[in-house]
Amino acid sequence: MSLKDKLMDDLKASMKDRDKVRKNVVTMIRAAIKQKEVDERIELDDDGIIDIISKQVKQKRDVIDDFKKGDRQDLVELTEKEIQILLEYLPLQLTEEELKVIVKAAIEEVGASSVKDMGKIMSNVLPKVKGRADGSLVNKIIRENLK
């Protein structure tokens, strides 16, 4: 079953179950997919949909900090629920240990020796972990390994 079909089935199920948060998240994903397809006049495959969902997870994680600063615990909890729902549509996330192995291999592969080589390493690592790891975590691990 394609990711689009799964999203449609989940939308129907969430409407039947009156699960408002899940319905809103699935609707948001479907709207982003439709927008990209209309803008670029293409039919997105599962990889394209995973890219969209990954971006939405990143946006949600970024906005949580703002909600915490604004002392809006209700919005923090809602956003965390939304992130959990979004993660259900992404491939299984890599652990930090698995990422460290991939990063170390990439550092050796490109012959990186300092933080100046960050771009080379990121361009090597990100395609390998596409949709399975957060870019900021990858960045942090690279910095730890280049000290």
TrEMBL record:
A single GO molecular function term of this UniProt record: carbon-nitrogen ligase activity, with glutamine as amido-N-donor
Pfam families linked to this entry: YqeY (PF09424)
InterPro entries associated with the record: Asn/Gln_tRNA_amidoTrase-B-like, GatB_Yqey_C_2, YqeY/Aim41, YqeY/Aim41_N
Family annotation (PANTHER family): ALTERED INHERITANCE OF MITOCHONDRIA PROTEIN 41, MITOCHONDRIAL
Full protein name: GatB/YqeY domain-containing protein
Organism: Gottschalkia purinilytica
